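Thread: quick sanity check before group meeting

JM: Hey all, I'm pulling together slides for Thursday and realized we never actually wrote out the predicted structure for the chain we discussed last week. Dropping the sequence here so it's in one place. If anyone has concerns about the input, flag it before I start.
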Amino acid sequence: MISEKDFLSRMGVQGAKNFMSLVAGCLETKGCVALPIKAALARDLMSAPAVTVTPNTPVKDIATLLTQSGINRVAVTDPEGRLLGLVSRGDIVKATMGRVAP
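JM (edit): ok, ran it. Output follows.
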């Protein structure tokens, strides 16, 4: 999985937190900070190893993992490591608001 933070950090944006960090970096330099990754491949950008959970991981454990890891989504994989889906912070919020079936 390649996150926004992966892109920003590989572009050299200091303290990369979000897209606005990129905009601020572009405004402070003589050129776009995105140019260094123009020819990059996925393997050059991605964080590894991927943070994953199983389909049976309790939502409270996923919320803790997201917070402790400083990430916004986590991959859900089967026992063979195949991607089944993603759980985002938004999914957690919806679940706690009762808008998603348990």
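AS: nice. The mean pLDDT is 81. The longest strand covers residues 83-88.
JM: adding both to the slides.
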